[in-house]
Write a structure and sequence with these properties.
Blueprint lengths: L8 E5 L2 H11 L4 E5 L2 E6 L2 E7 L9 E6 L3 H10 L8 E2 L2 E2 L5 E3 L2 E7 L5 E7 L6
Length: 129
């Protein structure tokens, strides 16, 4: 049953070597296994598979996100490592210092070396009406 099966996130890479440098040297992930031309990372107990494909960076939506306890600290740390965050100013989403707040969460988005949109998200307590 799927309710008890682990789920794995897939991150597409058009240049696997460039993507590995980004995720290992900049983001700080440690490779757990090389598999089928790609690499598996373990993040918070979940597997992430970076795999080669010419379709990397084609999605307009977030590819994956990390659930974090302190989005401001994560953004500051990633910026110090060279990650460039997206800034948005559109109906329904506006970032301030790279972070948007709304819908019970704080979120910040960045593009990886392959053009994939990734995010760090912190859930915040909802306030009763």
């Amino acid at each position: 049953m799927l309710t008890t099966a682990p789920i794995r996130a897939y991150i597409p890479a058009s240049n696997i070597e460039r993507a590995r440098k980004f995720y290992e040297q900049i983001v700080g992930l440690k490779p757990a296994e090389e598999y089928a031309g790609g690499v598996v990372y373990i993040c918070g107990g979940a597997e992430v598979f970076l795999y080669p494909t010419p379709n990397a960076g084609t999605s307009k939506a977030s590819q994956a996100f990390w659930q974090v306890k302190d989005v401001e600290a994560e953004v500051a740390d990633l910026k110090a490592r060279g990650v460039v965050f997206e800034e948005y100013a559109m109906p329904g989403i506006r970032t301030k210092n790279s972070i948007a707040t709304g819908g019970g969460a704080k979120a910040a988005w960045f593009k990886d070396s392959e053009g994939n949109i990734m995010a760090v998200v912190q859930r915040v307590a909802s306030t009763p009406p």
